[in-house]
Amino acid sequence: MSIGNRVYKGRPAFNLSLLAEYEQLPTANIADQMNRIAVLGNGIKRISSPEKPIMAGYAITVKVRAGDNLMLHAALELAGPNDVIVVSNEGDRTRAIMGEIMVTYAKYDRKIGGIVLDGPIRDIDALSQMDFPLFATGANPAGPFKEGPGEVNTPIAVGGVAICPGDLIVGDADGVIVIPNQDAESLLDKAKEYSKFDASKVEAAKNGKANKSWVMKSLEAKGTEFFDHPYK
């Protein structure tokens, strides 16, 4: 077996019916129901202008050598409408991993659900206006190499978060969250209920009905001292 230079075409089974449900849920609400530890680093931001505010799809994972995109090209040939390609790039920021040509191919030919890059893109003027979910760390005019090695559909890590092939990826203007494949169904109802609860708190804040009594209770429980006089 050629470890470090291999492509797995198969992934674990996943439930496509969940995608439409998760496309209605902000990443912040999902993150709160996952104890806030499954979010990619905030260096990865949405670069494009998709019509749908929330991206949801199942991960095709890609591990590339820093600044090289050969295995990303390989992944594009496996991807389809319900997939989100997620690329681990060894934290490199010196070269763009893809540009307008590749993203156009991903959108129109492969019709994939989105792309998440642990690295820069280029052609940002065009890509920032494209109706396609594209997340990256920024822009860099230097292009990638196409030499390999790398891997497709093996476990990777991006932004301190482990991602396995077939994990559910959700992204919006706040960023990207990773839901382990085996947890996606059981998490859904909790995230939906919490989203309703969160929306009710927003309405309460608008209408002057926000309940902030918990703030004083929490401060008192932590032994916070209060003084009426100015600091001296």
TrEMBL record:
The keyword Manganese does not apply. InterPro entries: RraA/RraA-like, RraA/RraA-like_sf. It holds the Pfam family RraA-like. Keywords: Magnesium, Metal-binding. Substrate binds at residues 99-102, 122-123. PANTHER family: 4-HYDROXY-4-METHYL-2-OXOGLUTARATE ALDOLASE 3-RELATED. This is Putative 4-hydroxy-4-methyl-2-oxoglutarate aldolase. It comes from Vibrio gazogenes DSM 21264 = NBRC 103151.
